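COMPLEX REQUEST
Ligand: magnesium ion
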Amino acid sequence: MTFKNLIILLFSLFNLCSIFGFQNNIKPNYIIIFVDDMGYGDIGVFGNPTISTPNLDKMAYEGQKWTQFYSAASVCTPSRAALLTGRLPVRSGMASSKNPVLFPNSLNGLPQSEFTLAEKLKERDYKTAIVGKWHLGHKKKYLPLNHGFDYYYGIPYSNDMDKINKNNYWSEYERKTLNSNSYNVPLMENYEIIERPVDQTTITSRYVDKTIKLINNYKDDSFFIYLSHNLPHIPLYASKEFSGNSKRGLYGDVIEEIDHGVGLILKELKNLKIDKKTIVVFTSDNGPWLVYKSHSGSAGLLRNGKGTTWEGGVRVPTIFWGSNIKPGVINDIGSTLDIYTTFLSLSNIKLQNDMIIDGLDLSKTLFHKKKSPREQMFFYKGDELFAVRLNNLKLHFRTTDWFKKPVSHNPPLLFDLDKDPSEKYDIYQKNKDKIKEILKLVEKHNKKMIRGENQLINRL
Ligand code: MG
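STATUS: Structure written out below.
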């Protein structure tokens, strides 16, 4: 090789690396902070007037705040399956219209045929851990250690499961008869139950402490830590340090404690000087569970909440931080599905070529503020396609409130989400020509859809 050719080769390698923002390291660390049932309007920087979130606000100013970022489902289990596989949950059988999520009497979980983000990162020897809520199957063969994680510490499903009585949460709360023993949920380490019922008042801070320990254990390697908080899903619990602090009441206390934890984690990354080789993403699994009055979050200006395909159910407050991410506000569309594809692309790991992956690579938006490649989003309720978004337009075929009987719309409802993010003004009649393009997209999507066998079945 001539000297000139050598220089050209080195130059192209340098360019290739810098496209992704990593001059020297193409094995960045990843931390996903996933919260449960936090709404679009529950963070200061996303418009909340009384919940104080200085750490998330700072994270957004130092990183990228995404204003049109979607979870792939409006309830826990399918949303988590999509996050970890980059696939719409109907493809893995992790979405059902009968049983919306997994329960303690569920028989199955995420099938072994799926390739989780952790499993894929193992191809390049990442250290992988999950701290917190799993909710993709609590039986041994479905637990995190059998899905690519080296370590697990957390509650395997929702914190309101295994309730010791059938009383209504809200009336029990008002009568002050709820306590941490009201839910017999287990805390697990790897395959073992280490505490039951788990003391939920300290669970948020314990998850953060564990995450910081893992960061220190793994700091000399490349790592992926999935911190999946059980809160602010009801029942709400805050530690003594945070109880009674927030103007927003207990819900605000819970968010402020989560915010504090985010601050500790980012500070640790800076102290260890690994913030430039670590990408942290903060997002929520679905919108607020509005039936719980002041114990539910807020979707801000978005319509409705959890369990629905209205914007309030699926659009989630999302912040990317760290590495060489270009700070700013991104108004383009993104999805939790894309985290999978983006991280694997940055780590130079090939997607499974025999599987349909719905995630897209957002790295050029993250590092160069180029337009997001995502222009469409399919919204399922259970295993049924309820709505679709193409650019600024969203077409609803069916809508629902929280587990009320769905309503079919013929003609469908059409909203311009750029001008009308609250989905108030149906513009179907004036835009019939544009509908054709969306319907074509739906037809193509349906034709190609291969559904996985339903895994959300319970023991009778
Ligand atoms: Mg949830």
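REMARKS: The radius of gyration is 22 Å. The first helix runs from residue 3 to 19.
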